[in-house]
Amino acid sequence: MARTFSFAGSPIRNVLERAHDMLPSIEKVLAVYYDDKKDGLRISLAHRASEGVHIEEVNTVDVMDKLKSFREKATPISWLHHEDIPFKIEKRRDRKIEVFEELENTVLLLRFENETDQKSDLLFYYFNGDTSNFGVSLDNRALTTELKSIISHILYHAVKSQIREHKENQEKLKLLNQNTRYALHENKELKEELENTHHRYRQSLADLCLQYVKEISAEYNTSFKLSPAALDKLINYKGDINNVRLILEQAAFFASTVHIDEAPEGITIEDSYINTENLGVTETVSKSDTDVSIREQRYTKTKTILDDMEQAAQRLKDQNQKLTSNNLARSLPHPKSAAAISDQLNKHRDRIIKLFDEHPEDWALIRKSFRPIQNIMNS
User: Fold this and answer.
1) pLDDT tens digits for range 243-272
2) DSSP assignment of 239-302, as one string?
3) 154 CB contacts (<8 Å, ≥6 apart)?
4) Residue 137 has pLDDT above 90, yes or no
5) Segment holding 12, helix H or strand E
6) CA R_g for the chain
7) Are 210 and 223 in contact, with CB atoms under 8 Å apart?
């Protein structure tokens, strides 16, 4: 199988490779041509061998120098006698290349302009001196001038047509290659543009998530932050982007519930807190269930803090102990320091005031007797 298209190389080389297909009985054909890929002169010989037609390269410097003068002429057709050819290479016993050896042969020289170096590419056809070249084995009439004229005319235009077709195919291949390279380049650019767009989308979604977390933190009066895994999970969410806020609200509520007995500097929303499944059902339930609204979820932690303080204050009263910050802190279900109590109340100040307004009968003991609560009420 050919390694590439037959018209990918030199047109003269292509003619040489098919010369014995066109003239099966011819002994040998010599090609002298300028090779663009080699950027130099090449001499190739196609001749008969025991295994069939064989092509070999002639690299003798002396042969190349003498053939240069032949390339400078423009006469398209010449019939040469062996004496018209200024050199010959003797036949070797090892049956290697033989050039211009059989003195009785008649040689037809065809010239074709090479557009690269503006000189002629040469094809030497070695004919026998009779019509046996054309498969008429019983007819050994000599090649007359009239027959030579017919032969040269037909062969010249056949080769010229082959060369023209070769070049046209080359141009078509170049155009195809240009279009292919353009398509590949365009595809590469589109791929890069898509990757950039995808990157910008991910960055925009990440910024949106962080903004939502900031807003939810303000509503909870608690500093929430997303773990890298949680942020990545949200960025890779394939659902409606309008659901992201609700997903984060639910995750924040879950995180605040998990850390309800702690007073950390901030609460990290882990990826395991984020539930993107059955979101539609969750939304429906959230909207229809009047007992557990989104707003109440956000106030749950504040209510729990006030409930724990009220119960601790009642225990201190029953034990006839003073209702101080230190005593109350030690009496909580999960004891903490007085400073932690103060910090917790400061963080929930706005919600405590709101809850007191909405539930005037609740948390009566700490409202009446616990000074840090009274300070909030009077602020």
Assistant:
1) 999 999 999 988 888 877 665 568 899 999
2) S-GGGHHHHHHHHHHHHHHHTTT---S-EEE-GGG---TTHHHHHHHHHH-TTS-HHHHHHHHH
3) none
4) no
5) helix 11-17
6) 49
7) no
Res. 67: pLDDT tops 70: yes
* Nearest-angstrom CA–CA distance, 112 and 164: 11
CA distances to 303, 359, 375 from 353, rounded to whole Å, are 11, 10, 11
Q: Flag whether pLDDT at 105 surpasses 60.
A: no
Pairing between strand 120-127 and 28-35? antiparallel
**Best CA proximity match to 256, nearest among 313, 304, 309:** 304
Greatest alpha-carbon pair distance for the chain in Å reads 145
| Residue 45 and residue 32 in contact, taking contact as beta carbons nearer than 8 Å | no
Other CB atoms within a 10 A radius of the CB of residue 319 amount to 9
Comparison of pLDDT for 152 and 102, the residue scoring more? 152
Residue whose C-alpha is closest to residue 60's, from 29, 98, 93, 26 = 98
In DSSP terms, 41 is beta-bridged to 34
